[in-house]
């Protein structure tokens, strides 16, 4: 028997229950993966609370990313082989010691990237990739705003944007997190609880404002983010850490300068095997060369997933967090 976390009802961290299970054997197109590390992400709390309903309903095992070793493969599998180190960011089910899953979602790991590092970066790192390289292609000379710059996605995106030659303005909720963001390359950090970040952006840019804002915070920052954009600028709303964005009048976009708004997801940018491999390869490259460093600042046992959720929801975490089976 193996161990996994199961949610039988939506609610607070206490609904995360430890259970024994038999992962079974892989069928055609599937692989059995033994996890060495599982990534923790804020999106996990959305599924736990029911903000994002799980596709298969209740009960379910949360978690979208992990790393480990392929124990066995089913008929017709060509993407990976038994004994290979792999990582993934895919559908729910990662909060487990072992799982059977589609082999097409698995990505072989290069030797330069450790298992814990991979588990901590797949979802956040590939999110940073599609944000910076696809949703809006950041180029040398751009000035951009990254909200929650000391968070999981924020730290990766800040480093990557600096590697691309951008000037990075970040926001943070405390002086301690501001220092972390600066240490990872942010040129300016705005304490959004103490300052009007939109006004500060205008000051920093001498009134020119920005071509793009990356906002994973949601409700608390959305309208202010629109005020940071220059005419025809792009608002990228990719998360809801402060709650879902309220409905708003589209005419506001016209009033503020013919703005664009998008609500992208990783899975919308990696829906084919080719897209997935290209996205991950780009991430592996910048991490392997040291342009982006993945810092694991918190570790919890998988059985302590509830404590990990309390920590991330209270904004007590920085960088990446992993759960260890």
Question: What can you see in these coordinates?
Answer:
- It is a single chain.
- The chain has helices spanning 42-49, 115-135, 152-163, 175-183, 197-204, 222-226, 251-255, 266-269, 273-288, 305-313, and strands spanning 2-7, 16-21, 30-40, 65-73, 85-89, 98-102, 107-108, 143-146, 167-172, 188-191, 210-215, 229-237, 260-262, 296-301, 320-324.
- It has 325 residues and is an alpha/beta fold.
- The protein folds into two domains: 2-122 and 276-324, Medium-chain alcohol dehydrogenases, catalytic domain (Quinone Oxidoreductase, Chain A, domain 1, Alpha-Beta Complex), CATH 3.90.180.10; 140-263, 3-Layer(aba) Sandwich (Rossmann fold), CATH 3.40.50.
- The strands form three sheets. Strands 3, 4, 5, 6, 7, 14 and 15 form a seven-stranded mixed sheet that branches. The chain has a six-stranded parallel sheet with strand order 10-9-8-11-12-13, with helices on both faces. A two-stranded antiparallel ribbon has the order 1-2.
- The longest helix is centred in the middle third of the chain and has 21 residues, at 115-135.
- The radius of gyration is 20 Å and the shape is globular.
- The two termini are 13 Å apart.
- 46% of the residues are buried.
**What's the tally of helices?**
10
Structural category is: alpha/beta
SSE order? EEEHEEEEHEHEHEHEHEHEHHEHE
Number of domains: 2
Please state roughly what percent of the residues sit in beta strands, choosing from under 5%, 5-15%, 15-25%, 25-35%, 35-45% or over 45%.
Answer: 25-35%
What proportion of the residues is helical, as a percent range? 25-40%
The CATH class label of the largest domain is: Alpha Beta
- CATH topology of the largest domain, anyone? Quinone Oxidoreductase, Chain A, domain 1
Please state the average pLDDT score. Answer: 95
Which residues sit in consecutive blocks of at least 5 with pLDDT less than 50?
Answer: none
What's the total number of strands? 15
What's the architecture of the largest domain in CATH terms? Alpha-Beta Complex
Distance between the termini: 13 Å
CATH superfamily of the largest domain: Medium-chain alcohol dehydrogenases, catalytic domain
- Can you tell me the overall shape? globular
The rounded Rg comes to: 20 Å
Main sheet characteristics: 7 strands, mixed
Domain Enoyl reductase (ER): 11-323
Protein name: Quinone oxidoreductase
Keywords: NADP, Oxidoreductase
InterPro entries: ADH-like_C (IPR013149), ADH-like_N (IPR013154), ER (IPR020843), GroES-like_sf (IPR011032), NAD(P)-bd_dom_sf (IPR036291), QOR-like (IPR047618), Quin_OxRdtase/zeta-crystal_CS (IPR002364)
